[in-house]
Amino acid sequence: MLSRSAQGLYWMGRYLERADHLCRLLQLQTEALVDRPVEEIYAGWNRIYASLDRQPPAAGLVFELSDAISGADDYALADSFTLADDLTFERTNPDSMWSCFAMGRENARQMRHCISGEMWRALNLAYLRVQQIGIMDIWTNSPEGFYASVSEDIDTFMGVAAATMYRNEGWHFMRLGRNIERAQQMAGLLLTQLEMDAPEAEYSESDWATLLRVYHASEAYQRAYSVEVIPEQVLNLLVTDPLLPHSVCHGLDAVTAELAVLGAGPDPEATAATRRLAGRATAMLHYEWPDSANREGVLELVSELCLELHNRITATYFYYPVMGVPTR
Questions:
Q1: pLDDT in tens, 184-206
Q2: DSSP per position, 92-106
Q3: Mean per-residue pLDDT for 12-39?
Q4: Contact by Cβ (8 Å): 87, 97
Q5: Cβ count within 10 A of residue 229
Q6: Where do the domains of the chain lie?
Q7: CA distances from 310 to 182, 254, 292, 303 (A)
Q8: Angle at Cα 193 formed by Cα 187 and Cα 197, nearest 5°?
Q9: DSSP letters for 112-156
Q10: Which of 100, 174, 265, 305 lies deepest, with the highest CB count within 10 Å?
């Protein structure tokens, strides 16, 4: 497969997974606006922005309210409107849902010769619907319903891909991008939550319960542990459960499997090094995590390995030097 085609399918998978991840976070965050305390609402926004490593759109927006502020609920809703718009429809924000969805669709458009007609139709129709909507359209009705519908559109596209896409290297590059993005997003969000809990050495049960809901893991958690939400147990489940589709372990296992299926790049040594790096990250979760006294440190290292793995994949399959031409 041409490196340009492989790169387009890889990034299509990454962008759509990123948009889906943000939709799930924003769906639960907007649901919380109805009946949750102001402090929890602002903690939720803080977690999303911190996990994206992005500052809120205005310096005047803060995440803590003093007793001196009158009409605190109205203030929180006004700020939430601005923050939701920034994370959903802001064209200049490369991490907004709209930007990720648009970039995923653009990569699909350029790679139409590599995907099925049904895939393009499903994705393009969903994109056209999002194009016609603004923050006022969803805010006055049901913002959580909008985020759920976009997430469903992405799930539908992935289901159509699974049913119709030819199982060549393009399929595996799309899955490679999707799974490395999934592992990286999960690790980043968990590290952000641990950082938020650290200053006061205490935790909010609702914050960790929300993480279980985001990743459809509530039932799995109750089967493995109990109805009581304990951060260490939630962390262990979301990081190491190989049967949970959104766990860090499942994502990296899938990345390792996809790299094993893909053919070698132009440089066999670079291909072998990329596969070894993926195996090293997976082995840390399978073998080092259970006995580690510093699991946060292990997770930080895994997150760094995910970023390095992306760089290695790019160098191995997309931007490799032309053989026989000296590099400077």
A1: 999 999 999 999 887 665 667 88
A2: T-TTSHHHHHHHHHH
A3: 92
A4: yes
A5: 21
A6: 1-62+72-166, 167-320
A7: 12, 14, 26, 11
A8: 145
A9: TTTS-HHHHHHHHHHHHHHHT--HHHHHTS-HHHHHHHHHHHHHH
A10: 174
